[in-house]
Specification:
five-stranded mixed sheet, 24% strand, Peroxisomal Thiolase, Chain A, domain 1, globular, 13 helices, alpha/beta
Amino acid sequence: MSNVIVGIGTYLPERIVTNDDLEAMELDYDRAKTGVSLDEWARARHGAISRHWARPGECTSDMATVAARRALDDAGLDPRDVDVIVMATITNDYRLPQAAMLVQMSLGSTAKVIQLDAACSGFVDSLLVACGLLDAHGYVNALVVGADTLTRLCDPRKFMPFSIFGDGAGAVVLRRQKADDGHGVRSFVTGSDGHLGHYVRVPGGAGKMPFSQEVLDCGLHYWQLMFHEIHGWAVERAAFCARAAVERAGLTLDDIAWVVPHQASLNILEKVAERLGLSMEKFVVTYPHTGNLSAASIPVALEQGKFRDGDWLVMPSVGAGMAWGAVTYQWYDYKKSGTPLL
């Protein structure tokens, strides 16, 4: 038996925000101090040129629903054909109900719903959960979704997070097929470094520090990121889990046709490629024009890939928690081959 992707769908908000647009806003970027424009600075430091922002009132479930519908359409399935929805996000529309429940409602689905409170590692984590459910419970079709409105976590006074993160959603339909012809998910390597959780924090607005005027005045409900520490950790963990997942699949890096990574930043991806001894030509890169999309970044990259049937892919991810993981996958050309036999 094997679990194969039979549909992909994505959604990026209509509004595109360039580096020049950011510099025109009342943020804390100081051109006199850096000596260059924000566009020059961002391209050189982390590689971002533009990103998509959700419009006012457009939330995670709205974007996720569009991506999910597109994935189902790509697979030729009705929402009622879905057995389980596994979705990762850290930006719910409300405190409750969970955004994934709103996606189920909007789709008109009766599928079991599981939402993971996972950020940049969320797609790999969701794929891991979906595969476990398909294998253990006799489910046939899983809808795996990653979506976030990360701009809502950014302090409106600070340029740095706005220059890195964007909003978006991505989804895949994962199907369980009885025949195992080599296609599909092959191996996972995942882990967590909770002792480093302070690298990415949103301290205000929860149990330890409930909402108050002080929390709002101090901006403690926005995220705080230790960019220097994140960079070194992300490079090491992404390279480690990519290599380990490939080895667990019984492959070598020479067998890998494509690396489809979480788009943390372009400079991180370049360092990971260097660690692995791989050319950047093997990397599917969307970061310059999407920014970091958290759990949505890998499915968005999958949709833009130019894969051939039988190609081996490795998908490494690193993110808040701190969490990391990678999955190996042999590409099934479902558009050419049609829906796989059950």
